[in-house]
């Protein structure tokens, strides 16, 4: 998985923004320009819905998302198909973007030393 290179790192994941709210506002602006509605917890809800559809046990998904098994089962089951989940989890940055991410990851790792 392409995110593996960031395992164990702590701190901001997006440079150039003063706060998590600034990142959220930038993403919201991009969504608005694209005429796509960005609701509260959209990415979290998508993750949970697609993770359950993989199929993955509700208790595992609940632990990953910091919620209860009951909440996962009552709110997220059957919202997505297994094929949709596979498509969603296969989204990956381009090779150029991955190279920049690796460079950034390496710089963070060298700062930790």
Would you write up a description of this structure?
The chain has 6 helices and no strands. The protein has helices spanning 20-33, 42-53, 58-65, 69-75, 82-89, 95-112. The longest helix is centred in the last third of the chain and has 18 residues, at 95-112. The radius of gyration is 16 Å and the shape is globular. The two termini are 25 Å apart.
Topology:
Blueprint: H1 20-33, H2 42-53, H3 58-65, H4 69-75, H5 82-89, H6 95-112
Helix pairs in contact: 2-3, 2-5, 3-4
Task: Assign an overall shape.
Answer: globular
Strand content: under 5%
Structural class: mainly alpha
Q: Could you state the order of secondary-structure elements as H and E?
A: HHHHHH
Separation, N- and C-terminal Cα atoms: 25 Å
Helical content, roughly?
55-70%
Poorly predicted parts: none
Mean pLDDT: 88
Number of helices: 6
Largest sheet: none
**Structure summary, number of beta strands:** 0
Q: Calculate Rg over CA atoms.
A: 16 Å
Give a nutshell description of this structure.
This protein is mainly alpha-helical and 113 residues long. Helices cover 59% and strands 0% of the residues.
């Amino acid at each position: 998985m392409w995110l593996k290179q960031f395992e164990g790192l702590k701190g901001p994941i997006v440079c150039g923004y003063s706060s998590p709210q600034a990142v959220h506002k930038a993403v919201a602006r991009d969504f608005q320009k694209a005429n796509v509605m960005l609701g509260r917890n959209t990415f979290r809800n998508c993750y949970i819905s697609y993770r359950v559809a993989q199929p993955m046990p509700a208790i595992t998904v609940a632990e990953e998302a910091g919620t209860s098994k009951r909440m996962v089962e009552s709110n997220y089951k059957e919202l997505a198909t297994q094929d949709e989940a596979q498509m969603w989890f296969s989204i990956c940055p381009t090779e150029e973007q991955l190279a920049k991410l690796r460079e950034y990851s390496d710089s963070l790792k060298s700062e930790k030393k």
